[in-house]
Design goal:
The chain is an alpha/beta fold and 463 residues long. The chain is built from 20 helices and 11 strands. A 9-stranded mixed β-sheet has the order 3-2-1-4-6-7-8-10-11. β2 and β3 form a beta hairpin.
C-alpha cells in the first residue's frame, strides 16, 4: 500500500525554480526542469501553480507514489541516507498554516492526510503558498566543476563542444537564446501581485550569478520592490557563488550587498560553494583560483566586521556539495572553516548538500573505510561546538549541530555495502578523461584515493 509519509515534500508547493532566459520551470532545485511552450503562457500568472508537470508531481507525492522528477531524493534514501526532501511533519505544518481544514489539530491533520479523498487531493494540489523563489540566471560560468555539466556551465559546454560530445545545434536546442520577454513579463506580474508579498526568500543561482549582468538588474528591482512594500517580517535575498570573482564584479557585488543589508525589509544570505581546500578545491572545481577565492572571502568577512550586525544583516555560509572526491579532505576543510571563524570572529554557517548525479561522484560509491573521514570531521566539529558553547548567533538553516547530523547520514550511505559498480566504473573513466583534458594529476592531488581508483579501473577492463 502506498504511504504518503514515504513521499510527501512541501518543496513541490513552496519552492519554484525558474530559468527566465530558457523558459524553464520546476519546483525544488533537485527536480527535473520542464521547458514551457507558447501554449503554457496563455494561462497567465496561474502558470506558476497550475503547470501540468508540477501538478503531476504534487498528485504523486500526495498518493505515496515516487515521481521520477524526484529521483535524486529516492536514490539517496534507497542507499540508506536521508534525502533533502521535507517530511510529514513539515507538510502538516504547511497545511495547518494555510488553514485548509481549520479546527483540526496537527495530529488530526496527519491522520487525515493518510486517507485523502480525490476531492481533498484536488484541494491540496491547487494550494498556492510560495515560501522561496529560486532564479537560475543561465549557464554563464567561469568554472567547470567536476560534478556540473553544460546545462549550468558555459565552460563545460565549451569543453563538450571541443571534444565532440555535444553538437552546437544540440546546445542551441537545449539552451535556446530567448529573445521575447513573455515569460519574464509573466514572472514580474506574478512576483509583484502574488508571490513577492508572501515569499520569505529569493535565491539567485547560475551559472555564476556574480558575473551575470541580469543578477544586478533583477536584484535591484527586487530590492526596490521590498523597500516600497513594507511587511511585518524579514525577507532573505540568497546568493550561491563560487566567489572566484574578479575585482570589477566583486566591487559591484559589494554595492549590491550594501543595498540589501541597509534595507529595512531584507537580509542577505550569502553562500560560497566549496567543499575542499587548496589544490583539491582547484581540481574538483576546475578553474578555481584558491588564492583569489580565499582572498575574496577574507575581504568580505573583514568588510562585514566593519558594520554592526544588528543593522547590517548578512549571513555567511559555505554551500558544501559533498562528493566522492572531497570526502577524504573534509577534516582539513572543516579545520579551514574553524580557523576562518576564529580569525574573523564571524559565524560561518554550514549548508548541507550531496551529489547524486552524476552517479560517479556520489559519495556512496566510496568503500566503507572512507567513513573514518566522516567520523574525524564530526569530532572536529563537535570539539569546536563545545568551545563555542553559544550557538544562538547561527542561522536556523546553517547550524553546526544540524550539519553533524547530516554527516551521519552520509556515513550511513558510505557504510552501505551495496555499491554501484557502474558508477565506480564511470569514476575511473571520467577521472582518466577529465585529467587528460584539463592537465590535472589525480594521483598527486589525491594520493589516498589511488587504491580506490585502481579498484574502479579494474571494472573498466573486466569482461
Amino acid at each position: 500500500m502506498n504511504n504518503i509519509e514515504d513521499t510527501i515534500c512541501i518543496f513541490a508547493w513552496d519552492y519554484p525554480v525558474l530559468n527566465l532566459s530558457r523558459n524553464e520551470l520546476r519546483y525544488c532545485c533537485r527536480a527535473r526542469s520542464n521547458t514551457l511552450a507558447e501554449e503554457d503562457f496563455k494561462t497567465g500568472i496561474e502558470l506558476f501553480n497550475k503547470f501540468i508537470p508540477i501538478v503531476d508531481v504534487r498528485r504523486s507525492l500526495l498518493t505515496g507514489v515516487q515521481h521520477k522528477d524526484c529521483n535524486s531524493c529516492w536514490s539517496i534514501e534507497a542507499s540508506g541516507g536521508r534525502g533533502p526532501r521535507s517530511r510529514m511533519d513539515s507538510f502538516v505544518n504547511f497545511v495547518n498554516k494555510n488553514q485548509v481544514w481549520p479546527g483540526l489539530s496537527k495530529e488530526q491533520l496527519k491522520e487525515k492526510l493518510k486517507s485523502l479523498t480525490p476531492e481533498e487531493i484536488d484541494t491540496l494540489v491547487n494550494l498556492e503558498s510560495v515560501r522561496m523563489i529560486e532564479i537560475s540566471l543561465g549557464n554563464t560560468c567561469d568554472l567547470k566543476c567536476m560534478y556540473c555539466h553544460h546545462h549550468y556551465s558555459s565552460q563545460w559546454a565549451a569543453e563538450n563542444l571541443k571534444y565532440g560530445e555535444i553538437r552546437i545545434q544540440d546546445v542551441e536546442r537545449e539552451l535556446p537564446k530567448i529573445t521575447d520577454t513573455v515569460y519574464e513579463d509573466l514572472w514580474w506580474a506574478w512576483f509583484d501581485n502574488s508571490a513577492g508579498p508572501t515569499a520569505s526568500a529569493i535565491n539567485f543561482i547560475g551559472g555564476e550569478p556574480l558575473i551575470i549582468e541580469k543578477f544586478y538588474l533583477y536584484s535591484n528591482r527586487i530590492i526596490d520592490f521590498y523597500n516600497t512594500n513594507t511587511t511585518d517580517y524579514w525577507r532573505n535575498i540568497s546568493i550561491v557563488s563560487n566567489f572566484n570573482t574578479p575585482i570589477k564584479f566583486y566591487n559591484r557585488f559589494l554595492d549590491t550587498v550594501k543595498k540589501i543589508a541597509s534595507s529595512k525589509q531584507l537580509k542577505l544570505d550569502f553562500n560560497v560553494s566549496c567543499e575542499a581546500i587548496g589544490d583539491r578545491a582547484e581540481f574538483i572545481r576546475t578553474g578555481t583560483d584558491w588564492q583569489l577565492m580565499t582572498a575574496n572571502i577574507d575581504k568580505f568577512l573583514v568588510f562585514l566586521q566593519e558594520h554592526d550586525p544588528a543593522q547590517f544583516r548578512v549571513i555567511f555560509n559555505f554551500q558544501i556539495a559533498l562528493n566522492a572526491l572531497c570526502i577524504s579532505d573534509l577534516p582539513n576543510f572543516f579545520k579551514f572553516v574553524i580557523e576562518l571563524q576564529k580569525k574573523t570572529g564571524r559565524r560561518v554557517h554550514l549548508r548541507p548538500n550531496q551529489i547524486v548525479y552524476p552517479q560517479w561522484l556520489d559519495p556512496y560509491i566510496l568503500p566503507p573505510e572512507y567513513a573514518r573521514y566522516i567520523d574525524e570531521s564530526i569530532e572536529i566539529l563537535k570539539k569546536e561546538m563545545v568551545a563555542i558553547n553559544d550557538h544562538s548567533k547561527y542561522s536556523p538553516y546553517g547550524p553546526w549541530p544540524a550539519y553533524v547530523e547530516f554527516l551521519k547520514t552520509i556515513k550511513n550511505g558510505i557504510l552501505n555495502p551495496d555499491k554501484n559498480d557502474q558508477a565506480k566504473k564511470e569514476f575511473a573513466e571520467n577521472i582518466d578523461k577529465l585529467t587528460a583534458r584539463r592537465n590535472l594529476n589525480f594521483a598527486a592531488t589525491f594520493p589516498e584515493m589511488v587504491d580506490f581508483y585502481n579498484e574502479c579501473k579494474l571494472l573498466t577492463v573486466a569482461k
